[in-house]
Amino acid sequence: MRELKILIVLIAFTAVTYWGIEPYAHHVMHPHTEAPDYAFSDLEEFHVVGDAKAGKELFAMNCQACHSLSSDDILPPMGHADLVAAYGVYPPDLSTAGDLYDTKFLANFIKNPANTAFDSIFKKHKEEELAKAKALAKSDEEVAKLQHSFEKTIEGYLAKTKISMPGFDYLSDQEIANIIAYMKAVKKETTPREATAQACGRCHSVNYGDLTENSSRDQLVGYLGSFPPDLSQMIKSKGDEYLHKFINDPQKQLLGTAMPRVGLTEDAEKKIVQYLEEVGDAKKDERNTLGVYVLIFMVIMAVFAYFFKVNVFKEVH
Amino acid sequence: MEIKKSANVGEWLDQRLGTTMLAKVLMTEYWIPKNINFLWAFGVVLMTLFALLVISGMFLLMYYKPDTALAFNSVNYTIMQEVAYGWLFRHIHAVAASVVFLVIYIHMLTGIYYGSYKSGREMIWISGMLLFVTFSAEGFSGYMLPWGQMSYWAAQVITNLFGAIPFIGPDLVIWIRGDYVVSDATLTRFFALHVFILPLIIMGIIGLHFYSLRIPHVNNQEGEEVDFEAEARKYKAGEKKKAKVIPFWPVFLSKDIFVLSVFLVFFFYLVFFHYGFAMDPINFIPADSMKTPPHIYPEWYFLWSYEVLRGFFFSADLGLIAFGIANVIFFLMPWLDRDPAVKPAAKRPYFFIWFWVLIVDLIGLTIWGKLPPTGVNAYIGFVFSILFLALFIILPMISKAERNGGAK
Ligand code: HEM
After folding, report:
1. Do residue B275 and residue B334 come from a single domain?
2. For B331-359, how does the pLDDT look when each residue is reduced to its tens digit (9 = 90+)?
3. How confident is the model over A128-148, as pLDDT tens digits?
4. What distance in angstroms lies between residue B128's CA and the mean position of ligand 1's atoms?
5. Same domain, yes or no, for B290 and B311?
6. Measured between CB atoms, which of B34, B264, B268 is closest to A316?
7. Residue A153 CA, distance from chain mean position
8. Are residues B343 and B404 in the same domain?
9. Is the CB of B395 within 6 Å of ligand 1?
10. Same domain for B313 and B273?
11. Which chain B residue has the Cα nearest residue A209?
C-alpha cells in the first residue's frame, strides 16, 4: 500500500513537471493561430467561365516569354542560367499549375502577383495589429502616431519588390479565366515529390530527397533578401500543423517573411507535407512496427520478473 | 598455493581469481536491509540507463562526424536514415540521456527524504553529487554534437556565463571554447569530452559510489540502525524470515529486476512513440550563427538552475552568484542538516515541510525556467529563486531545532 502511495506521488509530480515544460510551455511560446484558409477569402472572386482554346493563345502571347509548359510541348524560352539571371529566380514550368494552385488564387496572382502573394496579406495583418493598438491607445495623438507608423511600414514593405513576374492587370477577367482554363486542360497529375519540386523547388532544396535548388545561394539571397532553408528536416523542426498553416499563409506565422504565399489547393498542400514527412522521417513505419513488438516483449518480461520476485521473496517474508 | 587439476571452468577460474569469494563479497553476502521500498531500486535503474547510454553511444560513434560542416547530416541523415537501426540507437541514446536525469533527481530526493546522506553515508552522497555534476557535463557536451540551432545557441549562452567570473572570465570563455565564439574547435573538444574523457571519469566515480556503500550499507525506510553482522548470521543460519537483511543477489535484485522491467516498458514507450521531449524540434534546424532562435532554453534538467540564474532579472551578477550556489549547495546537505539522527522526513515535522516546499520550488523553477522571462513571469521566477536560497539558509536552523527536541 505504501509503495502504491509513493508511486502515485512520483507519477503526479513527474506529470506536473512534464505538463509545464512541454504542452504548457509550447502553448505560451507558440500562441494559437488560425486554421489554414483554403478559400483564400481575402481575395477577389472571378465570376466567369474560362475557355481553354482561347486560353492557349493568350498563354502563348503573355506567358511563354518566361514559362515553359512541357505537358503541351512548350519549351523554355531560354537556357536555365539565362532565365535565372533575367528574373532572379527560375520561372516554374506550368504543366502542373492547373493541378497545384487554387483557381481563385491563380486569377488574382496573374492580375497582380506581388499583391496576391505578399502585400494584401501583410497589409491585412498590419491592419489587424493597428486596430488592436488603436483600441488600447489613450489619446488622439497616439492614434495619429500609430496610423503614421502603419503607413510607413506598408510603404517600406511595398518598396521591396519581391515577385519579378509582372502583373497582367490589362487582361480582362474573361481572358485571365481563359488562361487558367487552358492550364487546367493540359495539367499533369503529380506525385508528392514532383509537386514539391514544382511548387517549392525554385527556392528550396530538399537534400535528403535529392532535390537541389534551381539557383545558387547568392542568386536566391539577392532575389529574396534571405536564404530559403533546406526543407529536409522541416517536418521534425516545425511539425505538420505548422507546415500546413505556414504554407497556406506564411505571413500569419512569420509576419514580414520573405516567403510568398504560393496558393496551393488543400490537396496539393497535403501531398507536399506528405513528401516532407517521407523524406524527413523516413523510418516512421519501421519505428511504429518495431515499437509494438518491443513493448510486447517488455511487458512479458515484466510479468516473468514479477513471478521471479514473488518466488524469491516467499522465503524471506 | 597449490593449483589442482580442475573439474570445470568455474573451478579453474576460482583457483586463479577467487570467483567464489568475489561472488560472495559482491552479491550473495552483500547485505541490504529488508525494510526498503521500490525507490531503492533506482540505483540499479540508473546503472542500466548508463549501460544503455554507453552501448547506444558506441554505435552512434561509428558514424558520427565531429566537424561543423558534417555533424548535422551525419546524425540526421546517415544515422537516422541510412544506417540500419541507426535511428533506434539515436532514440535510445537521446531518451536515456533525458530520462536518466529524471531518475537521478528521484534518486537524490529519495536520499534527502530518508536522510541517507548523513551519519556515515557522507561519502555516498558526495560521490553521488560528483556523478550528478559529471552527468550534467556529459549531457551538456552531448547536446552540442548534432550541431543544430539549440546545440549552438545553448552552448553559446552557457559558455558565456563563465565570462562574468571576475578577472579570468573573458579568458576562461575563450579557453573553454578554443575560439572567440563557439566553433569547430569547440565542437571537437566537446566531442572528446563526451565520448571519452567524461565517460571514463563517470565509470571511476560509479566505482567509488558503489564502494562507498560497503561500510555504511544502504539506509532503510525507517532510518533504523541495523546490526548487519548479527542479522547476516541469522539469515545464513536459515532464519530468513526473521532476519532484517537480504542478500543483494538473488533477493534484492529480484525485486530490482521487476522494477527495472516496468521502468523499461515506460522507457521504450518513450523511445518509440514519445521522444519529442528529448529531441527538441529546434535542434532539427542546422546551427546558424547569424540567426538567433526566438527562445533559447537549455535541456529540461538544467532548467531549475537556469531559472535561479535568470530569476535575478535585475542583476546579472547576483543571478550568477545564485546560480553558482545552486550548483554546489546539494553537496553540503550532510552539513546543512544539523540533526545527526537518520530519520525519514515523515518523522521530522519541520524537515517534512521543508522537503515538500523544496520539491514544489524545484518544479516551479523548472517550469518557469522554460517560459519567456517577460512580464509577471520574471517576478514569479524571482520568488522561486529567493525561496530556493532561503530554504538552504533555514535548513540548519530547523534541523537544529529538531535535534534539540523542539519537535517530536
Ligand atoms: C548515474 C549515476 C548513479 C548511479 C549509477 C547510482 C547508483 C546507485 C546504486 C546502485 C545505489 C544502491 C541502491 C539504491 O539505494 O538505489 C545507490 C545508492 C545511493 N546513491 Fe546513487 N547513483 C547515481 C547517482 C547518484 C546521485 C546523483 C546521488 C545524489 C547526490 C546519489 C546518491 C545516492 C545515495 C544517497 C545512495 C544511498 C541510498 C540509501 O542509502 O538509501 N546517487 N546509487
Report:
1. no
2. 999 999 999 999 999 999 999 999 999 99
3. 889 988 888 888 999 999 999
4. 6
5. no
6. B34
7. 24
8. yes
9. no
10. no
11. B77
For ligand 1, atom 41: residue with the closest CA: B219
Do B11 and B77 have their domain in common? Answer: no
In a domain, B181, yes or no: yes
Contact A316 B264 (CB under 8 A): no
Q: How buried is A191 (Cβ within 10 angstroms: 0-12 exposed, 13-18 middle, 19+ buried)?
A: exposed
Task: Encode chain A (317 residues) as per-residue pLDDT tens digits.
Answer: 899 999 999 999 999 999 999 999 999 998 888 899 999 998 999 999 999 999 999 999 999 999 999 999 999 999 999 999 999 999 999 999 999 999 999 999 999 998 899 888 888 888 888 998 888 888 899 999 999 999 998 888 877 757 899 999 999 999 999 999 999 999 999 999 999 999 999 999 999 999 987 888 899 998 988 899 999 999 999 999 999 999 999 988 888 888 999 999 999 999 999 999 999 999 999 999 999 999 999 999 999 999 999 999 998 98
Q: Are residues B56 and B16 in the same domain?
A: no
Is B302 part of any domain? no
Question: Is the CB of residue B112 below 6 angstroms from any atom belonging to ligand 1?
Answer: no
Domain end, chosen from B243, B269, B296, is at B296
Give per-residue pLDDT as tens, A189-240. 999 999 999 999 999 999 999 998 788 889 999 898 889 999 999 999 999 9
Number of domains making up chain B: 3
Protein residue closest via CA to atom 5 of ligand 1: B47
Mutate to test the interface with A, among B80, B221, B275 (most CBs of A within 10 A): B80
CATH code assigned at B157: 1.20.810.10
> What residue of A is the nearest CA neighbor of B269?
A295
B118 and B338 Cβ atoms separated by less than 8 Å: no
Largest CA distance in chain B: 80
CA separation, residue B9 to residues A26, A173, B1, B5, B25 (Å): 59, 93, 19, 11, 20
Domains in chain A (CATH in brackets) are 191-282 (2.60.40.420)
Taking the centre of ligand 1 as the mean of its atom positions, its distance from the CA of residue B75, in whole angstroms, is 32
What is the grid cell recorded at A251? Answer: 505571413
Q: Determine the structural domain holding residue B319 and report its residue range.
A: 307-408
Q: Any idea what DSSP says for residue B35?
A: S
B386: its cell numbers: 529567493
Asked whether residue B160 is assigned to any structural domain, the reply reads: yes
How would DSSP label each residue in A20-78? Answer: IIIIIHHHHHS---PPP-TT-TTSPP------HHHHHHHHHHHTTTT--BGGGTBPPSS
Task: Give the atom of ligand 1 at the shortest distance from the alpha carbon of B41.
Answer: 16
- Does residue B113 line the site of ligand 1, with CB under 6 A? no
Cβ(B40) – ligand 1 distance below 6 Å: yes
Final residue before a domain boundary, out of B296, B316, B341: B296
Q: Is B23 in the same domain as B51? A: no
Q: How confident is the model at residue B406 (pLDDT cuts 50, 70, 90)?
A: low
pTM of the predicted model as reported, rounded to 2 decimal places: 0.93
> How far, in Å, CA of A63 to CA of A60, rounded?
6
Encoded amino acid at B23, one letter: A
Residues B289, B329, single domain; the answer is no
Is the residue at B240 inside a domain? yes
Q: Is B44 in the pocket of ligand 1 (CB under 6 A)?
A: yes
